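tmp note - Diguanylate cyclase (GGDEF)-like protein
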Amino acid sequence: MIRTLLIIAAAAVVGYAFSLSLDFFEALYDFSRHHESWQLDEIFGTAVIMTVILLGVAIWRVVQLRQEMAAKDTAQREAQRLARHDVLTGLPNRRRLFEIFDNHVITARDAGRRLAVLIIDLDRFKPVNDLHGHQMGDEVLCVVADRLTRLAAGRGVVARFGGDEFAALLEYQEDTDELLRIVHKIVHELALPIRVRGLHLRIGASVGVALYPDDGEAADVLLRNADIAMYHVKAEDRGSFHFFKAGMDSALLERIELEQQMDEALVKREIVPYLQPVVDLKTGGIVGFEMLARWLHPQKGVLLPDRFIAMAEDSGKLTRMTLALLEQAMEAAASWPSSFTLSINLAPVQLVDPALPSQLLDVLARAGFAPHRLEVELTETALVERMDELKVVLAALRKAGIRVALDDFGTGYSGLYHLRELHLDTLKIDRSFIAGMLESEDRQAIVEAVLHLSQALGIDTTAEGIEDLALGEKLAELGCQLGQGFYYSEPLPLEAVDDLIGRHWPVRASA
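out:
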């Protein structure tokens, strides 16, 4: 088409130039008839020169026109490519994935293979942008894109849908574990550290999987179902994968609904702190409280943290929620004895935020609550994620006087190295070792070993999940200082805490 247009344009320009030459020659001839000094050979010479000039201009214009049309064609092709590909990673985008879906269905069918649709959502990507900037985040996304492309090579195609969400069309052999293995590899590979500018960043991913044609035959249906499966992973076990099952829609809709309501709930103080007492196992006296989150939902009743904490982290609202809960707890703490402590649970992503110490100290200063009365609890999961950054933040907390506790000790990845390096103040023995300790010699031996270790290191110990008096007395006999559990009290709303302090349990003398 372009070649034809160029030929027509060239012919037109040359014809126009020849026409001008004839007109010019005719004008010269008429001029010479009235001016005898002009000779015929001069007239022809001038006409030839003018014709050559005009033809040269015409050829130059044809070449220029060809270049302009070629540049326009290149620009159009590039625009079409950009419209179908992600600018940052070069991967196909959502539009392109829809365009090639049918071809992949046909290719898989002809090869006697099946087709799976995956939605891959990064778990801890937002803090990378917040803490290190969007340029660092872009580099991380490019590394993720490279890893996914390598894993999908020979099996299908990977696309980026925007933000931290990717998708994939993967062929696999039916009646084998091929698909399961590749999904496992995706989760494993994206959990490995990403080295960018000297930093080792851990993000991880949650993957939802839908199968063609079992879970749908159209691309939009399969992507929607894979998205639903991915949200189930986010809600239940991030850093894993889930295959779509019919009936998941209702859970997804509830999650979306709660996420949309969270901002308003924080403003209205519908998300509130509940407090569970921590007691001295020798005296039974209250020495402090652990703060736990509850959502007093107007329609759904009291929601426990497993319904909304992960969602708050994914949406970047977790620190805002934690500080709001701490401020509410501080209002209640104004009437406590000055020796009482308060412990709060923090997620790994919060514990690598350099702004955390100053944020906590601001809340404590406004409430007049001494920093040494606050204890932050980290889970063992945090010990394998960005250890260097974690050590910096914990050092800043200790320097400010805030205590540090390791929660659920014995259920994760901590070892003697972590106990030595992090200079912990408290170990909290997980309830799975405490429950049934009196009936199990093995469990009691584990608890005794933890207590001996903590005593040797000068670390306090708190036993979780104490359900009866005999268990509390045995733990005290073994040397455990503190305990908490339903035997002493379930988590209470703020308005019930003063009554508990004043009437039900003796209070240890103020320091």
